[in-house]
Amino acid sequence: MRVPEAFRSLRYPDFCVFFVAQTISQIATWMHSVAQTWLILSLTNSPLLLGLITMLHWGPILLLAPPSGAIADRVAKRRLLMATQAAQACTALTVALLAATGVVAYWHLGVLAVCAGLANTLFNVVRQSFVNETVGRDDMVNAVALSSAAFNGARIVGPAAAGLVIASLGVASAFVFSGAGHLLVLATLATVGVEGRPRRERATTIRQDIAEGVAYALRTPEIRAVLGVLFMISFCVFNFSIWVPLLARNVLGQGAQGFGFLLAVVGVGAVCGAFTLGTVVSRRPSQALLDASAAAACAVLLALCLIESVWLAAVALFLLGYTGVIASAGCQTALQLRSPDALRGRVMSLFTLIHGGSFPIAAPLIGVVAEGSSVSTALFLWGAGGLALLAELVGLRRGFERPRSTVASVSDMEASTR
Question: Are 152 and 271 in contact (CB under 8 A)?
């Protein structure tokens, strides 16, 4: 049977299995996150304590993303992925047991949130560098786009499934389903034929490996340019779990149903953006595409600060998810294709560090501005600030390119006069 062009990377058997595995894993992770939120609020009814658990869960990204990349370049990636799924399954099933027996305490959830965060950080770094092992280079854009679509589709399916399970069977059952999902992923990964072994034996320390990866990224103009756009889009745009509830509740006056609808709209836009990238862009995404999509996403934030209609907000949020994912998935693909095999894990760890690590920093700042002034002010500042930062990055990039082109012209003239 002929595979449609939009899904052409699924023709590779190993990627097809890996795609299913990471989709199930992301759904299970979202189920865990929603169930954890519900359980904490049931125990404490404290937004502050909920925020602390969120920080414990996402904090490991800031500390462990670079070491995770160095580890990914040293060890067989498939085995690392399997180890992370075993750890996440144990975490979810432990919470399920504690909740079912009625002995769960807040500190239990704090410790287990750190464990889940560590496993999730390692999984995301290794997952991104493992994609290259399962498809041909010509289909890398499509593979990354499908992976992004799976992630954003899980953002819709996971919370919805968790809500249904919690409402019908209780919060402990949601953790059981999450743990079972990770165990299923573990079994699925066991069937992948590619190990993802390191290209060469390493006689250096992990600290030296990290330094080598960072130095390569900083001295390579193409990698540096992509990371700049990634930072802007991650810090300014990819705060959907903050923007959407603030917009729904404080600006549009919507309840839980309206909030769920708007969050789903963002997810649908993100999935459509991922499919567009995978279908239209057949090779490496150009820097112009990354700049344009990032600028469009910031322009949508500016438009949102003026909108007071639910349906106009839905259209804008669809566009925000659409353009935001084209920018972020495009950055991910560009980093995959522009980094050498021996350094790919460490380069992709920088992607995880910037993309995931920006949220714990940007989210409280958005909250401070929204509470001190208004949600519309926060949207305006982040949209305008993102455009200003992007303009500065483009200006710096052209400033670096101009001397290089001048040197090249002088060299050509000297060669012609010899």
Answer: yes
